Amino acid sequence: PFGNDAILDVTLFTSKGVKPDRSLEGLVVPRHSKVSVPIHGAVPRQDIVALGVEARAGRIVAERTTVYLGNQKPAGLGVSLGAVEPSTDWTVVNGRVGPGASEAIVVLNPGDVTAEIEVAVVSDGDVLVEPQVLSVPGRSVAPLDVAGLPAEEDHTIRVRSVNDRPV
Fold this sequence. Notes:
By secondary structure, this protein is mainly β. It is built from no helices and 13 strands. Strands 7, 9, 10, 11 and 13 form a 5-stranded antiparallel beta sheet that branches. It is globular, with a radius of gyration of 17 Å.
């Protein structure tokens, strides 16, 4: 949406580390435009894929769009904005529990050193259960299924790096 072209690199992260793909480097986004970057060919049939998008030049707004075809999950569309940069503290609001609902936190560690993460389910400011600990190796992603943790119908999930590694 900005007045100058942007040049960007996309990095693909999986639970096994970075998945190199030179076709995702040096992508040009012309000014005042939108570019879709399909990644399904670069990382086929991965349960978890995280993206790092870095602008070499110019500015961008990054979003992720996921199309669910209904093969293994209900058909639908998911859209989310990217974060500006990693942080040591995240809050994910509007969690829901109930019939047919599933919930997981997936943490991306773009750094080289393992991040020790504490995940807490919070409702009305009170931690509902002992925080869960998750180790996320450098340059990879790791999931934590929070669907089985006790939670109120509406809750918040707090993710905090206990060894100060931004995620």
